[in-house]
Write a structure and sequence with these properties.
Radius of gyration of chain A: 18 Å
Structural class of chain B: mainly alpha
Structural class of chain A: mainly alpha
Strand order of the largest sheet of chain B: 6-5-7-2-8-9-3-10
Helix content of chain A: 55-70%
Shape of chain A: globular
Bound molecules: zinc ion
Distance between the termini of chain B: 26 Å
Number of helices of chain A: 9
Oligomer: heterodimer
Chain lengths: ~220, ~1100
């Protein structure tokens, strides 16, 4: 168990949560009628952008993925373009999945798409940031014995948190309370955000508590 | 092999469930029969009496007092809201707000009076409106001639008013529109559904009320205000909003009184009260206690009246209004007149007499139509009535002869009035007793019996694949105990020691047998502590989460309304999580863990991953896509006003555009054809189509015939009516003949299936070379033990021969005359029978639906097959090489299957409400109606519960399919593959369903557990519906959402359990036939 790596990760997670919080605080300073519920699509854009930005900054500073050491500029460009393609595909895949789970097909398409962008920035961008555009590694990480470092565990936890949050977010929609946050996709995106934030906050704690059980075969 | 006990056990458990359902219904569902008789002026209850009034013109039963009336109904106007206490210096929000009533009752005691108005339970608005207009005691289910709408069938005040030439103007709550469609002279309806909306209805009424009253175009104005009730639901009674609302009502009443003229009666009534939280529906004091205020500018009441009037039962308003306005009392009225309104003794007595005559007439007709009123009490009432009437006629005759002093006669009349009152009160009490009382004890007892049933199913289902408890203990002793309990109770009942009705006796009997079962089960299973694999437990699996959410969702009315979307959501979540867990457990990847750091970045995936993962994902995507696609066939219920029912629900004949009509006709026929074609392909793939057994002939010839017949039937029924008149009779005949021929063909198919379900093609060739050494078992030839030993060998040998021949190719086919018996389709013999039967059932069921729902049936079948494939892939990936786990179907599969069944209910265009039932399915093949009620009931039930039928009858496929999809490659992948030389080859050949015959005991136990698990899943859902109906019986939506949902769930459970037993019985019948087939093979085949 690498204590320093865990500490570095906690700091990184703190910044991740900060990004979500800032996406609520900063836009009202520049935009007049910005509100979480009223201009939800706008918030989705801002939040995704902030989360992705923080992830990129963390990637450059913390370097969780050792394969990025000593690579040529060409391969970096290659990886970057590949990552962009992966991200875009994941947005489309999430859109399709969200539709199959019951989102409307023709109405509120921008909302649905922005929701899937949000999910992608919570899940795919972190995958890209920790594992790189390597699909096989992604498949490997999401299995019981697949995690090989603390970052893999944190990825597992935040992904689970976001997906579960989005899933539970769908539950209040049919209720007849007529609250503004019951409108699609607000409750789902709020749930996903909360799940993501909870994953970021509790991930390091969980890893710290289970540090005895977690033994990594490599590194 | 124990086949019969499996079916018997499941049937016994189902019977236990039925008894608890029955007990619950007897305690919860208030039921009564509606009579269609109407009163009329020309037919007074008795023509002999009261000749004194008949000189009057436009006389009808009784001389009327008012020409016009304004009836204001303030929803949920409690008596507490209406009464005014000047001494109260610190009134609550709802107190002392209607001061106009107080002022009038104080200043004009002869003109105005406020009564406590006692509503009968259930205190829901619709039932109360029914009660206040029919004078009867409406229950949840008023069994009338028409289920399809809420319109009142019984005789009622509105009908009588309209029939007697009064112009009735209505404004307010649109519930009245559903109850009295097209009855009103003029009407202003406002939506009542949104409880949050306090003002729309009230403001709408106030816009129209005074203009209408100032005009001439009315005799009766009815205004139904909803604000107070909605205020109660939203904020509760003790809230400033309520105060505002009541103040508004006060203003309304004061200006209303200014608009009244002398000839008009004003009635202000609350339909029910509310609890302290603002709810209503039950029978508590606060819900029942409403207010009634009567006022007119001419004196209404006599002099000598007490200050605090007694409570008036709500139905009493009906005969009083009828007499005051000069119309006949509605036929089914049970109310008595309000005494104060008739102040001379003579008129009062004659009014009571007519009233009693009418009630007697109703009781007589009702007891002829239904038997739910106790006979003893009826007789007692009859005697009381005839004695009073006799005396009354005596007194009247003496009066006319004026033979005795008036004061004496008057005192006699007063006595008679008292006895009439007694009679009327007793009659109402008797009906109330049998129609309008919840029985909490029964409901709780039913719930506990139901939970015990679920526990029992759970125990049997969980007991693991090695359930060894003997059937004597599982089945024999409980049935013995239940029979003896039944005997004891029967004797006690006969000797009238106890006084119980049949429902409770059945409840007690099933309780006895359950306890006995649990005792023996515990005793038996505690002897041997078998190790359990945790993963198979329900509590530790994903399906428990889904089942939990599913059950919780049944407690919320919005979720019940949205169930059509909730069920597929849970279904796909469940299956996605199952596949995700498969991946998480590493069953898909089987990573070769690298040892070097550089390799760790690119872990290699095993070949099975590359094959299985896309396949599973594809199946999952297909399933979710089907689930979404089938959503277009939904229908709507009135709770969702924005919902547009699917256009596919309307039959083809009502489609106007000929092009769309033709296209949809073609689409339907094509999807019908695809179903039949896929069945053929499937049978061909597994080699069952070559058999010469009659059932295969049936599949080859009768299925296309049925398809053709159904297509012709659709073409005829959707055709326009303006065809040649000469052909009209022919068409009518064909519309009857086609469906009946199809019914007959289907019946024939089922009969063939039962007689000879083995679809194996046997080919005998002669060969000396092949090894015919089937090791014989030392037992009598043809005995069970030998069969067990030899059959797998025969099967393996057949497979080997077939494989050899295929490898050798065509050229040496001539030379080698192999002499083994080749049997095609033996590996799928069970599933083939099931699949054929299910397809047959599906064809019949879709014929009962509107033509355009055929694609939804197709999607439903595809969905079922996808679930089966996902399940068998997952099972095969999880199972150990010996495949023993395959014998117990995991919980997630059964849960998914049940959820898909629930979803199918909605995607075939149904909703759990009575108006949404497809009644016209009763006339498929019976265009001219029916002589009896049995056939239409069966047809409508088959139509309503078609997906329940398909999924429960097909549930045994969950056990069969993983064996069918067993592939040698998967088996070989297992790390623990046995390496012994002799076994390897045997492991290579897939045994498919013959593995089931290898382990006949495990097979029957597996079927039993599958059935128990299925019943458990259905039973838990039923239990939560029952609990929801019981706990939420005060809920605003109980009669609109929860009670119908409970009824549909209970009926669906009944249908499901019956077809589950039938489906499993069919599998066991196939098993029997296969045994016989092997026996013949061994006896006749030389070895
Ligand atoms: Zn009401
Ligand atoms: Zn209400």
């Amino acid at each position: 168990m690498d204590e320093t790596e865990l500490r570095r990760m906690s700091v990184g997670h703190g910044f991740g949560v900060l990004a979500v919080v800032l996406s609520l605080c900063i836009p009202p300073l520049f935009l007049d009628d910005f509100s979480l519920l009223g201009t939800h699509v706008m918030w989705l854009c801002v939040c995704s952008a902030f989360v992705i930005a923080v992830n990129i900054i963390l990637l450059l500073t913390l370097k969780p993925n050792p394969s990025y050491k000593r690579t040529s500029f060409g391969s970096k460009v290659n990886k970057f373009s590949k990552s962009c393609i992966y991200f875009f595909i994941s947005c489309l895949v999430f859109h399709a999945v969200v539709f199959l789970y019951g989102a409307p097909l023709l109405e509120s398409v921008p909302e649905t798409f922005m929701f899937s962008v949000l999910l992608s920035s919570f899940i795919t961008s972190r995958c890209l940031f920790i594992l790189g555009p390597n699909f096989h590694a992604w498949v490997r990480v999401f299995s019981r014995d697949g995690a090989m470092c603390v970052w893999d565990h944190s990825l597992q936890i935040t992904t689970l948190g976001s997906v579960l949050g989005a899933w539970f977010g769908a539950f209040p929609i049919p209720l007849d309370w007529e609250r503004p946050w019951q409108v699609w996709p607000i409750s789902c995106s709020l749930g996903a955000t909360m799940g993501y934030a909870a994953g970021l906050l509790f991930g390091p704690l969980w890893i710290y508590w289970n540090r005895k059980k977690l033994t990594y075969k490599n590194r | 092999m124990k086949r019969l006990p499996v079916v018997l056990f499941l049937a016994w458990v189902s019977l236990l469930f039925y008894s608890s359902i029955w007990l619950f219904i007897s305690g919860f569902l208030l039921m009564r029969i509606e009579l269609n008789n109407q009163s009329s002026c020309a037919e007074p209850p008795s023509s002999a009496a009261y000749k004194g009034f008949q000189q009057q013109q436009d006389y009808c039963w009784f001389p009327h007092k008012f020409e016009k009336a304004v009836i204001v109904i303030i929803d949920a106007l409690k008596h507490d809201f209406a009464k005014y206490d000047p001494a109260n210096t610190n009134p609550k929000q709802f107190q002392n707000k209607l001061e106009i009533i107080h002022r009038l009752t104080q200043s004009h005691p002869k003109h105005a009076r406020l009564y406590p108005f006692q509503a009968d339970p259930p205190t829901t608005t619709m039932q109360r409106i029914k009660g206040m207009t029919t004078g009867s005691l409406p229950t949840f289910v008023d069994v009338g001639s028409n289920f399809a709408s809420y319109a009142i069938q019984e005789d009622n005040l509105i009908h009588q008013l309209v029939h007697n030439g009064k112009k009735v103007v209505f404004m307010g709550d649109d519930t009245w529109d559903g109850l009295f469609p097209q009855k009103f002279h003029k009407s202003y309806f406002f939506p009542s559904f949104n409880v949050k909306d306090l003002h729309t209805v009230d403001d709408g009424i106030l816009r129209h009320l005074y203009p209408t009253m100032d005009g001439d175009d009315w005799d009766i104005v009815i205004a139904h205000f909803l604000g107070v009730d909605h205020c109660g639901h939203k904020h509760g009674p003790d809230h400033p909003e309520t105060a505002k609302k009541l103040a508004q009502m006060n203003d309304m009443l004061s200006s209303l009184i200014e608009h009244l003229d002398d000839q008009t009666l004003l009635v202000v009534a609350g339909d029910h009260g509310m609890t302290d939280t603002g709810d209503h529906g039950g029978d508590s004091e606060k819900e029942v206690n409403a207010a009634l205020f009567l006022y007119s500018k001419t004196p209404l009441f006599g002099n000598e009246l007490e200050k605090d009037p007694e409570a008036v039962p709500q139905v009493n308003l009906v005969p009083s209004l009828a007499f005051l306005l000069g119309i006949p009392i509605p036929y089914s009225n049970l109310g008595a007149i309000i005494e104060d309104l008739f102040y001379s003794t003579h008129t009062k007595a004659s009014a009571y007499q007519i009233n009693a005559l009418q009630v007697d007439r109703f009781l007589h007709s009702y007891s002829l139509a239904a038997g739910d009123l106790p006979a003893e009490k009826l007789k007692h009432l009859k005697d009381l009535f005839s004695s009073v009437t006799e005396e009354y006629e005596h007194v009247i005759s003496m009066w006319s002869q004026s033979s005795e002093s008036e004061s004496h006669l008057e005192s006699q009349l007063l006595k008679l009035i008292h006895r009439y009152q007694q009679y009327l009160v007793q009659a109402r009490a008797m009906c109330m007793e049998s129609w309008a009382r919840f029985h909490p004890v029964r409901m709780i007892a039913a719930c506990s019996i139901l939970s015990l049933c679920c526990l029992l199913c759970y125990l049997v289902g969980e007991a693991g694949p090695c359930l060894k408890v003997s059937y004597k203990h599982l089945l024999g002793y409980p049935i013995f105990w239940s029979l003896s309990a039944a005997l004891v109770f029967g004797l006690e009942l006969w000797t009238s020691i106890v006084d119980l009705d049949t429902a409770s006796i059945f409840g007690l009997v099933s309780l006895a047998s359950q306890l006995c079962f649990l005792y023996y089960f515990r005793k038996q299973s505690s002897r041997k502590n078998r190790p359990h694999s945790r993963s198979n437990f329900l509590l530790f699996s994903i399906s428990s989460i889904m089942l939990f959410f599913r059950c919780c969702s049944l407690f919320s009315d919005s979720f019940v309304v949205a169930e059509g979307e909730v069920a597929p959501f849970l279904l796909i979540s469940l299956l996605t999580m199952t596949v995700a867990k498969l991946h998480w457990d590493g069953r898909l990847t089987l990573l070769t863990l690298p040892s070097l750091g550089s390799e760790s970045l690119k872990p290699s995936l095993s070949p099975s991953y590359k094959k299985e993962c896309p396949r599973l994902l594809g199946l999952l995507a297909g399933l979710t896509f089907c689930a979404r696609l089938s959503g277009i066939f939904h229908s709507c219920r009135e709770e969702t006003p924005n919902c547009q029912p699917s256009t596919f629900l309307t039959p083809l004949s009502s489609v106007q555009d000929p092009q769309i009509k033709n296209l949809s006709y073609i689409g339907c026929v094509v999807s019908l054809g695809i179903i039949v074609y896929l069945l053929r392909k499937w049978l061909q793939h597994y080699g069952n189509l070559n058999s010469s057994s009659p059932i295969v002939l049936y599949v080859r010839w009768a299925f296309p015939l049925i398809t053709l017949g159904i297509s012709c039937y659709w073409a005829l029924s959707s055709g326009a009516d303006d065809s040649l008149t000469r052909l009209h009779d022919l068409k009518k005949l064909a519309l009857v003949v086609f469906p009946r021929v199809i019914y007959a063909l289907a019946g024939l198919g089922l009969l063939l299936m039962i007689c000879n379900p083995v679809t194996v093609y046997m080919k005998r060739t002669w060969d000396s070379e092949a090894d015919n050494t089937v090791t014989t078992y030392c037992a009598a030839p043809g005995s069970e033990a030998e069969l067990l030993h030899v059959i797998p060998q025969i099967y393996r040998k057949m497979q080997r021969n077939l494989k050899n021949r295929l490898q050798q190719g065509m050229e040496d086919k001539e030379e080698k005359k192999t002499a083994a018996v080749e049997a095609y389709g033996l590996g799928s013999v069970y599933s083939a029978a099931m699949v054929v039967t299910l397809t047959l059932l599906a064809l019949i069921l879709l014929m009962l639906h509107s033509e355009r729902l055929t694609p939804s049936f197709f999607i439903l079948l595809v969905e079922a097959i996808i679930i089966l494939y996902i399940h068998s892939h997952v099972s095969n990936l999880y199972s150990a090489p010996n495949g023993l786990e395959l014998f117990s179907v995991p919980w997630y599969a059964v849960t998914a299957w049940a959820l898909a069944g629930t979803q199918g209910f909605y995607t075939t265009g149904h909703q759990p409400v009575f108006p949404a039932i497809h009644w016209n399915s009763a006339f498929v093949g019976f265009q001219d109606g029916h002589d009896n009620n049995i056939i239409p009931a069966i047809l409508v039930a088959a139509n309503t519960f078609s997906s329940h039928i398909l999924f429960s009858a097909g549930s045994s496929l969950l056990l069969l399919w993983p064996f069918l999809c067993e592939t040698p490659t998967i088996r070989r992948k297992k790390p623990k593959a046995e390496q012994r030389e002799g076994k390897v080859e045997e492991d290579d050949t897939p045994m498919m369903e013959m593995r089931l015959r290898e382990n006949p005991d495990k097979f029957s136990v597996g079927l039993l557990q599958l059935g128990a698990k299925f019943l458990f899943i259905q039973g838990v859902q039923l239990l939560s519906c029952v609990c929801a109906a019981m706990i939420l019986r005060r809920h605003l939506m109980v009669w609109k959402v929860f009670a119908p949902k409970f009824l549909f769930e209970a009926l669906g459970f009944t249908v499901s359990s019956i077809f589950l037993c039938l489906g499993i019985a069919l599998v066991l019948r196939v098993d029997c036939a296969v045994s016989k087939w092997f026996k013949n093979l061994i006896l006749h085949h030389p070895r």
